[in-house]
Task: inverse folding
């Protein structure tokens, strides 16, 4: 008889060969403490062991680790291959086991005799969402849940309704709409000819929605060509990019054109005299010239 003095615990004998006919041959075997090995019956829950993260839209997260644990919150290896369903409360959330060569997955595979599985997350939507993991083969395991925050880095867009140009109103009113896909519009501002930015007015009284109609009326403009730019800011402090400004170049013309007329001989024996002259405008083009007799 051979006695083994081992610490209290559960052990697995990997190799024992017995010859019953004449003698017993004991082959050396590995002793695996229970602290590193357990069958799946000892596991009661899944736990995400890495801290909650904050990422930007479309940015790949740092590694996220899920672990199989006992009721005592001790990590335990699975005794067979296991599969975990991974989902997000965001409809655009994606998961992958490779942060370089991204391939989206909806299941994670835990290999035999492992207790940790690493994966990554990215999302095109902004907000705070929950990552949820559930065990496919054993519904009695408590699933894992952890929040992840995705920052809004998408700038709002602006559409500007053009005014008539040339325009005789030197305080023309402009209208348009500012839109944001992830946050709410917090302000709309306009600029004339590269000058200071001036607030526009929300048609409903307050900028606080994802889409806001606005109105603006610049102060008195001089005759000539002007350019207006309009930008918006959302609740995440993203400002419309220069390439996405609402913009228009237009002409203000409040000055009537001038006409010079060449005189003819008077009195004249010609009952159908021909007159010549020139019409001139400093801001616009001449569109017509008319005459009136008596």
Result:
């Amino acid at each position: 008889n051979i006695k083994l003095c081992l610490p209290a615990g559960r052990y697995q004998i990997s190799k024992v060969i017995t010859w019953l006919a004449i003698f017993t041959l004991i082959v050396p075997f590995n002793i695996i403490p229970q602290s590193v090995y357990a069958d799946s019956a000892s596991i009661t829950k899944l736990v995400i062991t890495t801290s909650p993260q904050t990422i930007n839209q479309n940015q790949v997260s740092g590694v996220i680790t899920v672990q199989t644990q006992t009721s005592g919150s001790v990590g335990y290896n699975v005794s067979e291959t296991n599969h975990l369903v991974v989902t997000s409360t965001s409809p655009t959330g994606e998961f992958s086991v490779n942060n370089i060569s991204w391939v989206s997955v909806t299941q994670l595979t835990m290999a035999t005799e492992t207790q940790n599985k690493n994966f990554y997350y990215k999302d095109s939507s902004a907000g705070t969402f929950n990552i949820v993991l559930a065990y496919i083969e054993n519904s009695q395991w408590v699933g894992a849940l952890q929040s992840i925050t995705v920052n809004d880095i998408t700038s709002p867009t602006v559409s500007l309704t053009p005014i008539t140009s040339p325009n005789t109103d030197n305080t023309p009113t402009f209208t348009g709409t500012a839109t944001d896909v992830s946050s709410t519009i917090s302000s709309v501002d306009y600029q004339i000819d590269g000058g200071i930015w001036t607030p526009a007015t929300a048609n409903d009284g307050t900028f606080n929605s994802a889409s806001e109609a606005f109105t603006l009326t610049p102060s008195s403009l001089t005759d000539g060509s002007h350019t207006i730019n309009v930008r918006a800011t959302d609740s995440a402090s993203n400002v419309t990019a220069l390439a996405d400004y609402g913009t228009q170049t237009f002409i203000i013309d409040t000055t009537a054109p001038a006409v010079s007329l060449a005189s003819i001989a008077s009195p004249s024996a010609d009952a159908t005299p021909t007159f010549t002259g020139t019409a001139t405008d400093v801001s616009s083009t001449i569109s017509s010239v008319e005459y009136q007799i008596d």
Remarks:
- The chain has no helices and 19 strands.
- The longest strand covers residues 224-234.
- Confidence is low (pLDDT under 50) at residues 1-11, 13-39.
